[in-house]
């Protein structure tokens, strides 16, 4: 019993997909200047992040913050070895995104029927079918497709979401050619066993290296959920610098798990990330100062305070 | 690989030692009225907490906030089945505490030599020897003695603390008759494997049910560290309602892990605590309102926001 058994399952290296510029900023009310967004991406890649979700090709009527999507993509000075992804909710989005030459696109489906109906006005099955031509077009263009399974643990309308619903979405995504799925606890209600069950459901249709975790820290569970995911061998996580972002369905909610906190955890576990934590904290400071906000990362706040450790 | 193996180690029931009234309030600058402290204890026990660290019998010159220790203890309407503990840093403290009839006393020693020297002006070995008569007197009076091992993972002066140092303190505490040890990550720098190693060190001298975890959330790791502790079978944790408390050695630091967050985690894992989360959140609201502060518990903030889940 008293052995470090759990640790032995951990991967030796983890890939972090930095979603701050897209998922983090999309609900931000003040308009963030294009130059600020570009500078953020530059700082993130300089800190060692190798996958960055840059923007969203969605109607500016829905998400005005992302109206400068093409301008941001054009201004980013790309580094070899870094993958730049964009969200494309439909064929029109994909067509608009194509000129920006993303390395990867992201499509999404909810594991909750009520959430799907309320937010995109169609069933889960219909929503995924609608992505089929987007996926086909992207793959024909040599662009990788990731699928985000939102509300994979809980839904603001339905409550708990059964793992079987996650499996169903993963199955449908696999069927239309989505190459990777992210299991997203969109409202941050999940605890470790629930999150493991949702990941296991996705793993029935995808290999370990093509399943990632996306956790919000609304209830303070995100870092523990990352730990629980590592124990299953999951080695890819979406994270957001300084915890940028929030869930519009949970007032008072904190946002995505902070990249800094996850890096602190992983390095403490002896897991490589390729990320320079100090440079990452500076990137987080940069964007939070631009927004006039304090960091949502506890590790960043503690390290900024420069306590004597 | 893809099994819920880790979960199988978890205890089915966990005891939470609520330290908010003592460890949480001790560094609070504004004087908290005695009646407020008593009301807090009453609300905590009404919420189902069965172990409460009520106050400290320490010189009011050192900790003015605890100057009303005897008055608080006298005013608490005790409930059967609830254990009330107090901190007694020396024989004088024990003598003062005795009239208040605590069920348990807490003594402490650091696992860091530098911390011991700077804070209590003596070596670790000397500090523990000084407790020997306190322990003997308490046990002769039928009062249980818990020992807190502070800086068990990291120290603000020395940096990382080796598990061997924790084992040494646990050994010395066992030798003088301390019945239970709490492994405390006082400055919140620990990550799960480090915390497990520190707990393992204590487990060489104490059985599982007499070792507890005490984690600060300074770097956002506390809930993950609780999870990692559960995997070793640890079933007792110190927690602080609404995350009351902070570490004077880490500016900008958050305090003890919030009881609400740990209860949310444990209930999500199917582990019993006997605590009513709603009543607990109300207790946290009560004390934070009295202090003019917002809660440090993410679960409490999310649940107060009453999102539709």
TrEMBL record, chains A, B:
<dbReference type="InterPro" id="IPR000891">
    <property type="entry name" value="PYR_CT"/>
</dbReference>
<dbReference type="GO" id="GO:0046951">
    <property type="term" value="P:ketone body biosynthetic process"/>
</dbReference>
<dbReference type="GO" id="GO:0004419">
    <property type="term" value="F:hydroxymethylglutaryl-CoA lyase activity"/>
</dbReference>
<dbReference type="Pfam" id="PF00682">
    <property type="entry name" value="HMGL-like"/>
</dbReference>
<comment type="similarity">
    <text>Belongs to the HMG-CoA lyase family.</text>
</comment>
<keyword id="KW-0456">Lyase</keyword>
<dbReference type="InterPro" id="IPR013785">
    <property type="entry name" value="Aldolase_TIM"/>
</dbReference>
<feature type="domain" description="Pyruvate carboxyltransferase">
    <location>
        <begin position="14"/>
        <end position="281"/>
    </location>
</feature>
<protein>
    <recommendedName>
        <fullName>hydroxymethylglutaryl-CoA lyase</fullName>
        <ecNumber>4.1.3.4</ecNumber>
    </recommendedName>
</protein>
<comment type="pathway">
    <text>Metabolic intermediate metabolism; (S)-3-hydroxy-3-methylglutaryl-CoA degradation; acetoacetate from (S)-3-hydroxy-3-methylglutaryl-CoA: step 1/1.</text>
</comment>
<dbReference type="InterPro" id="IPR043594">
    <property type="entry name" value="HMGL"/>
</dbReference>
<keyword id="KW-0479">Metal-binding</keyword>
<dbReference type="GO" id="GO:0006552">
    <property type="term" value="P:L-leucine catabolic process"/>
</dbReference>
<dbReference type="GO" id="GO:0046872">
    <property type="term" value="F:metal ion binding"/>
</dbReference>
């Amino acid at each position: 019993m008293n052995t470090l058994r759990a640790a032995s399952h951990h991967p030796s290296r983890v890939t972090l997909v930095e979603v701050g510029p897209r998922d983090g900023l999309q609900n931000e009310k003040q308009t963030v200047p294009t130059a600020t967004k570009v500078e953020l991406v530059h700082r993130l890649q300089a800190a060692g992040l190798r996958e960055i979700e840059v923007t969203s090709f969605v109607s500016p009527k829905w998400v005005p913050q992302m109206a400068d999507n093409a301008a941001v993509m054009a201004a980013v000075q790309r580094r070899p070895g870094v993958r730049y992804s964009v969200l494309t909710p439909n064929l029109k989005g994909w067509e608009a995104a194509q000129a920006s030459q993303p390395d990867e696109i992201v499509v999404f489906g909810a594991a909750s029927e009520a959430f799907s109906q309320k937010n995109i006005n169609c069933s889960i099955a219909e929503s995924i079918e609608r992505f089929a031509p987007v996926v086909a077009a992207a793959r024909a263009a040599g662009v990788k497709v990731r699928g985000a399974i939102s509300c994979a643990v809980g839904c603001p309308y339905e409550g708990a979401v059964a793992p079987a619903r996650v499996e169903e979405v993963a199955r449908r995504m696999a069927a239309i050619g989505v190459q990777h799925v992210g299991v997203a606890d969109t409202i941050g209600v999940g605890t470790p066993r629930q999150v493991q069950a949702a990941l296991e459901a996705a793993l029935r249709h995808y290999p370990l290296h093509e399943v990632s975790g996306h956790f919000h820290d609304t209830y303070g569970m995100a870092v523990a959920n990352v730990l629980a995911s590592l124990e299953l061998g999951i080695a890819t996580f979406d994270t957001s610098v300084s915890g940028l972002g929030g869930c519009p369905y949970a007032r008072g909610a904190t946002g995505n798990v902070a990249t800094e906190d996850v890096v602190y955890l992983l390095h403490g576990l002896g897991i490589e990330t390729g990320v320079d934590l100090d440079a990452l904290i500076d990137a987080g400071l940069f964007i939070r100062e631009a927004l006039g906000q304090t960091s949502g990362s506890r590790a960043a706040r503690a390290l900024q305070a420069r306590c004597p450790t």
